[in-house]
Design brief:
By secondary structure, the chain is an alpha/beta fold. The protein has one domain: 3-Layer(aba) Sandwich (Rossmann fold), CATH 3.40.50. The chain contains eight helices and seven strands, in the order βαβαβαβαβαβαααβ. Strands 3-2-1-4-5-6-7 form a seven-stranded parallel beta sheet, with helices on both faces. The model has no long low-confidence stretch (mean pLDDT 92).
Length: 260
């Protein structure tokens, strides 16, 4: 098992990519603190993971609040005594459907930066003091292909301009932290998912399913592999970066985009 005796915090774990990461880590032997703002879903997830034999602690937290993040880290230390891995997955573009800069209010901008960039910063800042004494640790940030700009039927979902800016910020933060923390034995990498179609009820899935067949075909045709990806495929990339398989990889941006 690649993560045997490792303790991992996974943010935004209640559904989609975060949920798949949690199951992938549990299968590889990790002990988990899973967190999300959706208390009912994070508790349900922890019960599912426990059935599989994993040791799991659910924790409800808003990663944009420093006090919540600090409480989350204290809970992890109290339960497990250490933190080996942090996956900064919490984020999202929201449901406001804004694509024009004229329509982006200052509050929408600030909210998107807070959720998609500040949250990863706060969580990383909180765990590093527990990683440094062990001269070991892994931080995996989740960015997005929209960090390079997006267009088309699915590119307009949510507040795409501030979301793209925040996810681009994740890339810069990842590369700088990798250089800053490398001497302390802490690896920092990012995964950049492309079009990922998650479970029923998720916004991207709903928008994708509502498209006519010709539009779906046009979207799939711009992806060299000819299809959307799955959360499980993203989770495999995160697992690689969180494990010793990536023993000489830091500051990397691993694209999971089907070549698009």
């Amino acid at each position: 098992m690649r993560l045997q005796n490792k303790v991992a915090i996974i943010t935004g774990a209640a559904q989609g990519i975060g949920r798949s990461i949690a199951f992938a880590f549990a299968y590889e032997g990790a002990e988990l603190l899973v967190t999300d703002v959706q208390e009912d879903k994070i508790i349900a997830l922890s019960e599912e993971l426990k059935i599989s034999g994993a040791r799991v602690v659910p924790f409800t937290a808003d990663v944009t609040r420093k006090s919540d993040v600090e409480s989350m880290v204290r809970e992890c230390i109290a339960e497990f005594g250490k933190i080996d891995i942090l996956v900064n997955n919490a984020g999202g573009s929201g449901n406001v459907g804004i694509k024009d800069i004229e329509d982006v209010t200052e509050q929408v901008w600030l909210d998107q930066i807070a959720l998609n960039l500040n949250g990863a910063f706060l969580c990383s800042q909180a765990v590093v003091p527990y990683m440094k004494p062990n001269n070991a640790g892994r931080i995996v940030n989740i960015s997005s292909y929209t960090s390079e700009g997006s267009f088309g039927p699915l590119g307009t979902s949510g507040a795409r301009l501030p979301y793209a800016a925040a996810k681009a910020g994740i890339l810069g933060m990842t590369k700088q932290l990798a250089k800053d923390l490398g001497p302390d034995g802490i690896y920092v990498n990012a995964v950049m998912p492309g079009l990922i179609v998650t479970e029923l009820g998720a916004r991207v899935r709903d928008r994708y399913d509502m498209l006519d067949d010709n539009t779906k075909k046009r979207i799939d045709e711009v992806i060299p592999l000819g299809r959307a990806g799955s959360p499980e495929e993203v989770a495999k990339a995160v697992l690689f970066l969180a494990s010793e398989d990536a023993s000489y990889v830091t500051g990397a941006i691993l694209e999971v985009t089907g070549g698009s």
